[in-house]
Amino acid sequence: YLIWSLSRAAERGNQEGPEAVGSKLDIPLRVESLTIVKQCEANLCNILKTKFGCVATIGGVQLEFMMPSGVKVSVWKADLTYFAVDAVVNEANDELKHHGGLALALSTARGLQIQKECEDYVKKHGKLKTGEAVVLDAGLLPCKKIIHAVGPKLPFKPAKNDVLQAEPLLKKTIWSILDKVEEQHLANVAIPAISSGLFNYPLPECAHTIVSTVKQYYQYLPTGRHVPQEIFFVNHDDLTVQAMETASHLIFSLYQHQSYIIVTLPVSDGHIDVIVNTASVDRNLRVGRISSAILKKAGLEIQKEIVKVDKKKGLIIRTQFNTYLSIFFFGLLQILYNSVLECLITAAAQPYTSISFPAIGIGAFRFSKDDSASIMFDAVSDFAKESQQKLEVYFVIFPSDHETFQVFSKTIQSTHTKKSNHRFPEIKASTPHLILLGPSDESTHEAEKWLNRLLSMQSHTITIYNNFILHFRMEDHLRLESPRKGLLMKSYLTQGHACIEITSKTKEETVFAALEVEAMLCKIQKEFISEEEGELQMLSQTELSCKRQTVEKSSREFLDRSAAFGIHGLIVMKVEKVENNPLKLMFDLKKKQLGSSSSRTMFQCIPAQFCEMISRIGFQAECSPLMGLNSGG
């Protein structure tokens, strides 16, 4: 039996604190904690999974908009397999076979029930066509339903014509999903970037089509139709989340006649009608990153054209070299504000619907990044006040130029707060946080305690108490002893327990090193469990099986154990019964060898991180606690 207990004082304190909903916890991250968590994400997620059985997702809601219809749209970074909503959308193939991507992740995470129901559906109704969707049960997923939707499949590195042909099919897919939301009267639905992964749909275009279709669907919905509370755009990788965020900003534009957004894309990507570039005095397009990119894409003919231009008049060149780019402006005027404004006016007069600018002036003109951003945004804002032509304005920053991206992002946010004519109210993204999902409330709370203790420490020294240190191999010790500036590690024994003490000049470096050691210990613990299970299976000659079931509080099993703890001032919160046939056989065999016909109950205090291990392979010396020390494992 696994018994979770608290002291009476701790129980009173626990009642006053926040409670987890089910087995999910959201842990807000301060700036310094966020830095640690992001840099050590892989190690941290592995540790939390091994120690406490918890899946950790870093991120959460990135952006929210409220549509006039009352539907809230939000962009999330999260794991769909653990996203608690009415329905999750699965990017399916026509046979509903879960061979890869999100489909495989959903099926693998929550058992064979999902795949079996899909196979039964296809046998009865036949294959799905591209653009169709079907609602089936969610198995053990935290959502209520799964909407399996078939998006268009494109060839590897698709041409523009491939994308144009696929666009109406992707729109039909999203429309089908939203129809199912209405039919099922769902309160919310989580939609990933369908077709962008294994189906090769270019990410920017995919995000734009999905978001615009959602907007169109609810913009013209007849009165009296079912309207969900929220549409979640959920993806787990930063690149896709950023694309959905960019598309949402663009589609749910904040101004009536213009919108602008900062993107980090190659100059030739996307459906941009006009590209603005600053040329060098000698008109050499090989000078400058954007000029070079244009020259490479459009060819040498564009270089010949620019040589002929009159500096005072600027230049307009039409090109057929790239179907994505229909016109180039090369601003040679010396006044940045007037140059930007003239480009906007000229583009709108054609009329074109989109234009992109680089961060003009921060190179040869030696403008500060703040001045460049401020002047360019002022020009765009002034243009928007006078123009009746809707124009999407992009500011294209190179991915490696993080500082410039941050400055322009800050400026655009500042500009937004000054405007009052919002088309769709924007809700600020929530504080960065870590989402913990575990098998039980106890597991998630123990994981939270361990994590908070690690991230909130004030000292530059951490001591890890864990007997699996004794299992370190030579290469593990050499890894710990490798010289790192300002970092000191020493291992020792105390009260029969192995310890590693880590000291560094900064708290962050200490935590980084501690997480590295914890990851090594988790790896060794997994190997130890695997070896013990192999030996247990061989000796018992039975298949491995392990189940943990919560005992009812009214049962004799619970009351007997509660009484035993009560005399020591402890309150039993939960009792779990472990059913492990190989362990039971080995225990009975040991009793027979000792000639004992009876047994007595022994209570052993253990750290929470070893509960799963004990359930699988029984009590081990490695998991005994260090008495007298309030420490994590």
From TrEMBL:
Organism of derivation: Cyprinodon variegatus
Pfam family, any one: Macro
Lineage: Eukaryota, Metazoa, Chordata, Craniata, Vertebrata
InterPro entries (UniProt xref): Macro_dom, Macro_dom-like, Mono-ARTD/PARP
Gene3D superfamilies: 3.90.228.10, Leucine Aminopeptidase, subunit E, domain 1
GO molecular function: NAD+ poly-ADP-ribosyltransferase activity; NAD+-protein mono-ADP-ribosyltransferase activity; transcription corepressor activity; ubiquitin-like protein ligase binding
SUPFAM superfamilies the record matches: Macro domain-like (SSF52949)
Domain Macro: 60-252, 247-416
Subcellular location: Nucleus
Protein name: Macro domain-containing protein
GO terms under cellular component: cytoplasm; nucleus
Gene Ontology biological-process annotations: negative regulation of gene expression; positive regulation of type II interferon-mediated signaling pathway; protein poly-ADP-ribosylation
Keyword list, A-Z: Glycosyltransferase, NAD, Nucleus, Transferase
